[in-house]
UniProtKB/TrEMBL annotation:
InterPro entries: ACT-like_dom_sf, Ser/Thr_Dehydratase, TD_ACT-like, TD_ACT-like_sf
Name the UniProt record assigns to this protein: L-threonine dehydratase biosynthetic IlvA
Keywords assigned by UniProt, alphabetized: Amino-acid biosynthesis, Branched-chain amino acid biosynthesis, Isoleucine biosynthesis, Lyase, Pyridoxal phosphate
Cofactors demanded by this protein: pyridoxal 5'-phosphate
GO biological-process terms attached to the record: isoleucine biosynthetic process; L-serine catabolic process; L-threonine catabolic process
Enzyme class: lyase
All copies of domain ACT-like, residue ranges: 42-116
One GO molecular-function entry: L-serine ammonia-lyase activity
């Protein structure tokens, strides 16, 4: 569809997904791929504080009210103070990515943005 966007601009387009290889179990995967393509779903590796209120602080300082955490998983607790976390954030608008990256960097300057690293993405997601 991306190749035809100028031809279909301002027109109603319907995509029919059917066939034996598209059952109900694949819908989540199709949705995830679509969100990645539209630059609305983003994965990071962060060093996350191990203290009460840290998640609330992350939500308040990093996310916009319309953003959503869709995955939060500790990969390794490196000490009593921090743990390595893989986190997925779904944006309401793909234009918010620059601001999201800036806020994530302020929270953890050593963060890794997984979307740009195909090897890490295939290993962790």
């Amino acid at each position: 569809m991306e190749n035809y966007k100028t031809q279909i601009q301002d027109k109603t387009v319907v995509c029919i997904v059917s066939g034996g290889n598209n059952d109900i179990n694949r819908m989540k995967e199709i949705e995830k791929r679509s969100l990645l393509f539209e630059e609305m779903k983003h994965y990071f590796i962060l060093n996350f504080p191990q203290r009460p209120g840290a998640l609330r602080e992350f939500v308040n300082e990093v996310l916009e009210p319309q953003d959503d955490i869709t995955k939060f998983e500790y990969l390794k607790k490196t000490s009593q103070n921090t743990g390595t976390v893989i986190i997925s954030i779904q944006l309401k608008h793909h234009n918010d990515l620059v601001q999201l990256k800036e806020h994530v960097h302020n929270f953890d300057p050593s963060n890794i943005y997984i979307n740009e690293n195909k090897m890490l993405y295939s290993l962790l997601i």
